[in-house]
């Protein structure tokens, strides 16, 4: 005999008996109830006592023959959305409006179980490579990225902001631990209403010291992604099968300089270059198509972005100060990572800030690390929701976000 807890996901009445699908914490278990047994409504929380019977036709390889059902709670009213089909057949708005309910769908929740696996894979990789996990403030005195895309708040009479990234703090902690990482929320007050933008998202950040080039950072990210994809294939087979997912295989990730990438797309698709300082979303997609055809890789690094489009802490190239020692990683045509080498020399950092007409005094606490000695260092930030959405083949990042926050949505 076995005792199991869960929610009644679906009841299928047959002649003389009923199939009761029980949603447990990770899987849906098939149970069988006799025709005389009184069954509570779907979404009731129950404790079931049953005998275990082998059944090859069941996904789990067995089914439970119910002896007793103890009802722990019943729903107050019927669900406004049908959630126990293969997919939740409704609009994205309804999917998000009724998120506490729609996430109970077997495939919907598998998305976020898989996302858990991504984070577990990343963490395990970091620990194996001598990174220390840190937790940085999300209420800050100044923005790391600058600009207007920052949420302000009243902090006991002082002006404060929600952190756009852990950039300043993870750099500081390189001077403490040499290698650090954080997986946590970041906030961007961008008024974008697109399929790729959120105002709060989860950033996977790492920073490492004593580097010689951005290639070392790119190699570390390649190894991180490779490790995590293998980890998913071994530990999350249920979710991969349920979502009908084919994981990409990484051997190496090709890299192409920014200007060369722009020219490559322009020549291949007869598109005149309109902006030599940044990539348009359409250009990212077209570059991916070209690289995939040439190499079979679904990832591509774009390196040495113009200094004008990179933050003040990005190290400029010695060969060409108008370019930076930085990169983006594109996955299936979407930028999922921005990274690069940082300025570690105090005079160089102050000079670049002055060149940008920044108030150096406002960044005294940040510059403290430069003033008192920092190793050459660099790192990156990866958008967890963007990575998850492209891994699953979704065009809208909201499908891979537990409770999205965009310019329209503050609940649930």
Q: How much is the radius of gyration in Å?
A: 25 Å
Q: Quickly give the structural class.
A: alpha+beta
What is the 3D form? Answer: elongated
Total helices: the number is: 11
Short key terms for the protein model shown above:
alpha+beta; five-stranded mixed barrel; 412 residues
Q: Helices and strands in order, then pairings?
A:
Blueprint (H helix, E strand, L loop, with lengths): L1 E12 L3 E7 L4 E7 L10 E10 L7 E12 L18 H6 L1 H4 L3 H23 L3 E2 L5 E2 L11 E4 L2 E5 L4 H11 L1 E9 L12 E10 L4 H22 L1 H6 L12 E3 H12 L11 H15 L3 E5 L22 E6 L2 E8 L4 H10 L8 H8 L5 E7 H8 L21
Parallel strand pairs: 3-5, 6-10, 12-13
Antiparallel strand pairs: 1-2, 1-4, 2-3, 4-5, 7-9, 8-9, 10-11, 11-16, 13-14, 14-15, 15-16
Task: Provide an overview of this structure.
The chain has 412 residues and is an alpha+beta fold. It is built from 11 helices and 16 strands. It has helices at 92-97, 99-102, 106-128, 167-177, 214-235, 237-242, 258-269, 281-295, 346-355, 364-371, 384-391, and strands at residues 2-13, 17-23, 28-34, 45-54, 62-73, 132-133, 139-140, 152-155, 158-162, 179-187, 200-209, 255-257, 299-303, 326-331, 334-341, 377-383. It has an 8-stranded mixed β-sheet with strand order 6-10-11-16-15-14-13-12, with helices on both faces. Strands 1-2-3-5-4 form a 5-stranded mixed barrel. Strand 1 (2-13) and strand 2 (17-23) form a beta hairpin.
Question: Nutshell version of this structure?
Answer:
The chain is of the alpha+beta class and 412 residues long. It is 30% helix and 26% strand.
């Amino acid at each position: 005999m076995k005792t199991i807890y869960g929610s009644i996901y679906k009841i299928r009445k047959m002649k003389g008996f009923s199939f009761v699908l029980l949603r447990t914490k990770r899987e849906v278990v098939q149970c069988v109830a006799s025709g005389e047994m009184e069954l509570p409504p779907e979404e009731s929380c129950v404790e079931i006592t049953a005998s275990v019977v082998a059944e090859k036709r069941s996904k789990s390889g067995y089914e439970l023959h119910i002896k007793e059902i103890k009802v722990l709670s019943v729903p107050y009213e019927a669900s406004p959305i049908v959630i126990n089909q293969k997919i939740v057949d409704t609009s994205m708005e309804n999917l998000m409006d009724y998120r506490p309910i729609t996430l109970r769908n077997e495939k919907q929740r598998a998305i976020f179980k898989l996302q858990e696996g991504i984070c577990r894979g990343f963490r395990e990789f970091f620990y194996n490579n001598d990174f220390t996990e840190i937790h940085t403030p999300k209420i800050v005195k100044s923005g790391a990225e600058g600009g207007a895309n920052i949420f302000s708040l009243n902090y006991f009479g002082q002006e404060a902001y929600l952190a756009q990234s852990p950039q300043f703090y993870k750099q500081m902690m390189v001077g403490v631990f040499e290698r650090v990482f954080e997986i946590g929320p970041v906030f961007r007050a961008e008024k974008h209403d697109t399929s790729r933008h959120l105002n709060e998202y989860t950033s996977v950040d790492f920073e490492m010291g004593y580097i010689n080039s951005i290639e070392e950072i790119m190699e570390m990210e390649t190894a991180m992604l490779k490790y995590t994809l293998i980890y998913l294939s071994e530990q999350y087979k249920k979710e991969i099968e349920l979502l009908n997912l084919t994981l990409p295989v990484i051997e190496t990730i090709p890299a192409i300089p920014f200007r060369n990438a722009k020219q490559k797309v322009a020549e291949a698709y007869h598109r005149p270059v309109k902006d030599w300082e940044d990539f348009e979303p359409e250009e990212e997609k077209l570059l991916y198509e070209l690289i995939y055809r040439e190499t079979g890789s679904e990832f591509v690094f774009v390196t040495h972005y113009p200094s004008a489009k990179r933050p003040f802490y990005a190290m400029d190239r010695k060969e060409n100060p108008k370019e930076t020692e930085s990169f983006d990683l594109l996955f299936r045509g979407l930028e999922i990572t921005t990274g690069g080498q940082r300025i570690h020399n105090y005079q160089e950092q102050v000079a670049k800030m002055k060149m940008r007409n920044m108030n150096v005094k406002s960044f005294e606490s940040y510059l403290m690390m430069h003033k008192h000695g920092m190793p050459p260092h660099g790192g990156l930030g990866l958008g967890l929701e963007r990575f998850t959405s492209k891994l699953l083949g979704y065009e809208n990042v909201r499908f891979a976000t537990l409770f999205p926050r965009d310019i329209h949505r503050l609940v649930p």
